[in-house]
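Researcher: Next entry in the queue.
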Amino acid sequence: MTMATLPGIEARAISTPRLRTRVLLSGPADGIPVLFFHGNFSSATWWEETMLQLPGQYRAVAPDMRGFGDADPTAKIDASRGMSDLVEDAIALMDHLGFQQFHLVGVSLGGLVAWWMMAACPERLLSVTLAGPGSPYGFGATRDELGTPVNDDFSGSGGGLLNRELIRLVGEGDRTTDSPFSPRNVLRLLVWGPPFIPGREDELLEGTLRIHLGEQDLPGDHETSPNWPYFAPGRWGATNAMSPRYTGDLVERILAVESKPTVLWIYGTNDVAVSNTAASDPATRGLAGLLEGYPGPESYPQQPMMKQIRKMLDDYQTSGGVYEEVAVPGAGHVPFMCHPEEFNRAFHALLARTSQTHT
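Model: Structure for this entry, 359 residues:
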């Protein structure tokens, strides 16, 4: 509970039957609740400015998710359940706080958790804001809009994806720009999006350095594969939980629910972390000569993440849901940080339209 917070943000240690973790809170205790999910390599700290910019009638809730920040380090993510551990943690937290219905916001990995919540408990969601979300089919190893696997073992996804030098430097608490793989440089290139650098970069970097590390955390375990790039997902940690190996029938479940919350999909046009040519996609790295033995785009194409999201949301709308797509020009992976006025304009309008059903 030692991370500094902005004035107006309360940091509280909260224990539920599922998880003890740090939760950031702001706004009136009896306000309309808004639950924020952070992304990979981050923590609840990343949402503080957005929380404080909410209109006065809202109560913001942002937990450090399992595997991150000040969450109980003994609590692990069972990737074979996809995002279910993180979903159940969030439901237990909102039950503990006494919130039956709430607005939901997720960025990147947090967007993946939001997809899973749309399948698990749509009746509890007043709205869903997906800020640069991962694809509902997970990260890596799929070839088309329908999430068709590149290989049967989903090679190229999961715990083997992450750069080991980055993981080493995170473990050492590196705060420099000495290595191209230093956490600060990776955030600047892949997350903030040049030339933007947040004013509170040091605090945000601290959230990255508090990731739980290990074969059951990050990067997680992995298996060898006969298929390029010769690794397949393991069972533990958030990066493995992101693998399409564990997605199952998630998309079908979301489309089948009767209670469909209104969705805002908002992203930066310069996002290189989630795109049809994502920088961390093994195929992108193979095309650039950064991974040896790349078999070519016919055998291992880049994952069309944006096409997958748009196809999913179009089908969502066809099956009775409503969604809005907002592209923020010039923004990177975190539009709520680098272009807060544009983000909040769309986000606050969604909250206003959908809060009337609050109970």
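Model: Residues 210 and 235 are 22 Å apart (CA to CA).
Researcher: Noted, moving on.
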